[in-house]
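User: Hello, can you help with two protein structures?

Assistant: Certainly.
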Amino acid sequence: MGLKEDLINAYKSVGVLDANIIYIYSDFRTFGRQLEKFPNRQAFFQTFIDPFLERDKTIILTTFTYTTSGDFNTLTTPTKFGALNKWVLKQEDVLRSEHPLFSYAGLGTQAEFLTDIGHSAFGRDSIFDRLSEKNAAFLYLGRPISNGNTLIHYIEHLSGATYRIHKTFPTNVYRGKEFIGTHYSAFVRRRDIIGETFEFQFSEAAQLLRKKGIIHQVGSEKNFTNISCLNYDHTVDFLFELFSKDPTIFIKSNFI
């Protein structure tokens, strides 16, 4: 069998093909070794994505730029993230959300839900808020789950984490020549406490998600060959529960 058939079987095994919207995290340090078998990068990345688009699914990926000032253009500002993230921005039918720090790109029948996003990166009407009850799932391709998930900032925001503050940024947002808006906000780490960096950590939460049975996986995270699926709503509910029991579960600190 070829890579595409192997991927489809793996996707079926972990249940991600049952979702309508797939939020992808990827690391191609191992999968990328198969790139030489393909005529170009386009064909390689399509092999991973087409099984979803061919089934009328929608995929979304982070295209963060952390543009805290100046201009951010959804059509031209490049992402600082990985190979698949950069690839998706070059696709003809891609749609991209407008937040100048934390933007997302999407392909598929429901990708339009990314546009006209709320001004808060992690609050109400954010990407994470909109994914609720949409039959969404997280998919990790070759990326260890313990490396993190931006969802935790949504949990922190709505739970009122005291180690973060709301900050607004004067970046001007454009879609091509069209001015969209400014003063988008994010829930960012505090910098006013000596000795505290509030660096995030997700390893404990990942272990508990696995113990809870929310993670469905084939392959090896150690070898960066894992294909891991987590139901979105189940993950959100469980992380809220974890934070309510331990407000430091997402940081490398015992700060209260």
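That covers the first. Now for the second protein you mentioned:
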Amino acid sequence: MFGFEVEFLAGVSVAATPYSKEEAEWPPHPDRLFQALVSAWGRGEPPDDNERKALEWLEALDMNALTISAPKGRPRDVVSVYVPPNDAKTRGTVGSTPPKKISEAIRVVPDFRKNRQPRSFPAVTLPMNNASMVRYVWHLNDQKEQEFIGHRTAIARLAREITYLGHSHSLVRAALITSGDAAIDTSWIETGPVAMRFPYEGRLNELAESYKRSLKENRVVRPNPSLATRTYRLIASSVPSPLFDMENIVVFAHAGGFVPTLAAFPLVAKRLRNALLRCAPIDTPIPTLLSGHDDNRQPTDTPHAAIVPLADVGWIYSQGRLMGLALVWPREISTVDRLNALKIVASFVKSGKGKVGLLHFGRDGSWSLALEPEATSASLRLDRYTKPARRWATVLPAALDRHPKDKVGKKLADIITHSCLNIGLRKEEIDGFEVEVHKYSPVKGAPSVREVLQSLPADSPYRTKPFAHLILNFRDPVRGPLILGAGRFRGLGLCLPLDGDDTP
């Protein structure tokens, strides 16, 4: 088993189908990926013979053994734009007498050319909170597996050389993967309305001949698109999703002032909640979505917003700095409730100077928070906490709902199972999972249980709860965010995947 992992770094794929210049192609067809690999091979001077043999082996693979996984993309509105044609040429050589007519002399300047041509750039935008990944995975028999070993180094080198897929706006990171295809948001399976183009034996020679003709004729000779040989349809992923929705989150980033410690985050979450409630209109009820209380000021049983930390944790050199925080909504809320809550968030941001909100911490000072629609720091990316994984670990310790006892239904595993059910995971996905309890987190930079307990204010409702750092080992991949325990609405029990490498 081997494949290619392609990450769209800008969260957008700009590529038109060869049959319609106004229709975006998604996911990128396997033939488009193959052409990108051929382009990477052609950059070498001279082209590497081992890489050519690897491409010839790749084009001859049985495409029925290919599985394609991709997130669900949203087609962007297509608008025609007018661009200048290729650079004009003037007659003569360097040092020649300038043309007598000024119009001939200045026509090399794009601003003076009037023959602009309409062009369209169809694109698909991808969810930035999840990994914008496409994976192409071949399931090989024993003979092909042995052949792959001989081509592995060359294929991996070619994959690393791919910088874009489709239009040059579609910046990507590509890599060879050999550990199977991890589940993403959606999977593309055979039969359905999406026709796909695949490489075939002799495709490499066709592409090379087109390039040679381009050099010989001094013009761009585009290769013919391969024929669509199979069709695919989009189906929902089988990876379970939790209670919280990461599609429409609100991210606040550090914008100056006093920065609390990560261990004190329950207090930070309380200050933000109170600051938001103070910004609510006086003549309307305080939204349950933000307060967590009903009209009688009693804790509500309905899901409400959680406030989670975004910190410098999980990297090799992490120091545990609090970089910001996020408001995470439940999945099942009405549009009206969400809009009312967002109006309050907007009022909070306007409460400080320079479009920042302020959280006050007495003599320590105030923390300025600014909205961060597009995360510029890796530690502010929520997709770190949402990708499917089998192993998870707490960043902040979980406040357990009750003290474990050596009785049926009251053991630690039973308590954690109940916490997983509370956030929307199904029982069949939890069965067979294993739990490890620790005083310290395996996540680099995360505070210990003792540090968090010492930072709790005297009136905290969690002081009487048992705290523990957890490592959860599920049988099958589970999608985040996982925020477990009694303090999940204030960031306690926030988990980070441990599967694979997590590097900025």
